[in-house]
């Protein structure tokens, strides 16, 4: 009998974890950092304790208690008096440490809400991801931004590659998202087919990848889809695309006389490369924090570090530069030649948006420094219209929207049942509605 359980992504954006089991074999799709519905207890300014990241998360319910998944050396109570593991918890912790059949992990893409717990996986459990995602994660590790815990046993995948775990097979299918190596997966068991989108969009640079996933997933028994935008305000018109973002950036480069500041998530390597080219064409130099510049150079982007340019040069000709400052190091902005002729360009960097509790810090600093704020990004997630169109084309027996605060806003077509999963509840995969 084939079953599926959900250990994250329920009522929240992020923390996706889907376990498919059959005949003593298990496949875990994504292993993201948990974001509890009541709020992330480990959000800034909290600093996780080095070496205790997993143990502390398990103690407060901010990581899934999946037996046989995590490295026993990193579990609560490891190397310390048993009493510190929590009253009455010794038996449960022993069960967590025991291996459970053959297990394999498959990561959809290298964003922390999908890969952030991978560094805690047992060393003997293989962790698969598209080779472009593995390359990006390796570049991050080489430049000091590796995963907490240890680097897992990465197994790079090619487009269309199929991996077997007992009678379960997992096919890697590329999709479009705002990071290299984004993939969905088709999981085939003797009892049915589960398709998982990972994070997906249809308005990016590579819509054909996502359309290809839709074609491959057509008629599956269970479609597990991200539904991020279902919980957002209704859009006014079609979603912004990458051309819109680049055009907005070019306009600001022309119209901003002074120093420009840029907030861009470095893992969006394609956009970073486009912005570097646009900046050079405009006769400016784009400067990055040294660690970010080192990471981008490893990814093939000609990134120039900020510390390679004397501060006096910035003050002498502020209009010749664009600076991507370290997120949240706001006092360092006081050293830069900023004025009302400057601009802060937010292109999906950190803080991520008005919903981020640190957004008010950003806007407060910019107001104090009299620097105008321009938000020009576009989403890495499919619009509600595109999500509904996708489900209609795939027409699964059952669709399970996760990675959203509003799963019931996904309205399936006639003949498709909508499942709003419950945490750690075991559902049977069959040709019938779940």
Question: What keywords describe this structure?
Answer:
alpha/beta, 24% helix, 20 strands, seven-stranded mixed sheet, Metallo-beta-lactamase, Chain A, Metallo-B-lactamas, Rossmann fold, 434 residues, globular
What is the CATH level 1 assignment of the largest domain? Alpha Beta
Termini Cα gap: 14 Å
Helical/strand content category: alpha/beta
Total of DSSP H or I helical runs spanning 4+ residues? 11
- Strand order across the biggest sheet? 6-5-4-3-2-1-20
Radius of gyration: 23 Å
At the fold tier of CATH, the topology name of the largest domain is: Metallo-beta-lactamase, Chain A
Largest sheet: 7 strands, mixed
How many structural domains does the protein architecture include? 2
What is the annotated CATH architecture of the largest domain? Answer: 4-Layer Sandwich
CATH superfamily of the largest domain: Ribonuclease Z/Hydroxyacylglutathione hydrolase-like
Q: Roughly what is the average pLDDT, rounded to an integer?
A: 93
Strand content: 15-25%
Unreliable residue stretches: 81-85
Q: Indicate the percent of residues in helices.
A: 10-25%
E-strand count: 20
Q: What is the 3D shape? A: globular
Give a description of the structure.
By secondary structure, the chain is an alpha/beta fold. It has two domains: 2-83 and 100-233 and 381-424, Ribonuclease Z/Hydroxyacylglutathione hydrolase-like (Metallo-beta-lactamase, Chain A, 4-Layer Sandwich), CATH 3.60.15; 242-375, Rossmann fold. The chain contains eleven helices and 20 strands. A seven-stranded mixed sheet has the order 6-5-4-3-2-1-20. Strands 7-8-9-10-11-18-19 form a seven-stranded mixed sheet. The protein is globular and about 70 Å long. The model is unreliable at 81-85 (pLDDT under 50).
